[in-house]
Amino acid sequence: MPPPANDSGAAAASGDRKGDRPARTARNAMIGALLLLAALVGGAQLFSGSWTAPFEMTRYIKAGPRQGARTLERDLLAAHPPGSSMGPVYAVLQRMGFACGGLAAPGLPETCRFRARRSEREVLSAQVDLRHDGLVLQSIAVRMDVAPN
């Protein structure tokens, strides 16, 4: 027959653990707080835009409304000269962040618009007018304005 369980030995062994419990609880709380803080800092960086890749309009925005409009028009005309198809121009503008409506009636310009914050106090608006005959591009005109936010 086994000897009866002695609570005094078990209490002595667990007494060491009970004395350690507040220290472990404090350590675990600190680790949890640090993990939470790291998650908050990482989330703030991600959603503030500091880790996002620069989009294609960045260089035109930084150039300012006059030079940016000239450069964008020159680049669009170099890639899509008059006589080319409308599809690739639409794809490029949408990739750049422009919002284009449905294809307008032939002879009427199709307008694509873009807005972006240039600084804390300024918003840049860009407008690209595409003249076409239905499927073929005839001309491209770009306007940019800066307005107070």
Largest sheet: 4 strands, antiparallel
Gyration radius, to the nearest Å?
32 Å
Low-pLDDT sequence parts: none
- Spatial order of the strands in the main sheet? 1-2-3-4
- In DSSP terms, counting alpha (H) and pi (I) runs of 4 or more, how many helices? 4
- The overall pLDDT average reads 82
Question: How would you sum up the global shape?
Answer: elongated
Binned strand content: 15-25%
C-alpha end-to-end distance: 87 Å
Percent range of helical residues: 40-55%
List the helices and strands in order: HHHHEEEE
Q: What is the number of strand segments? A: 4
Give a brief outline of the structure.
Helices cover 50% and strands 22% of the residues. It has helices at 7-48, 58-63, 65-79, 86-96, and strands spanning 99-100, 110-117, 122-132, 137-148.
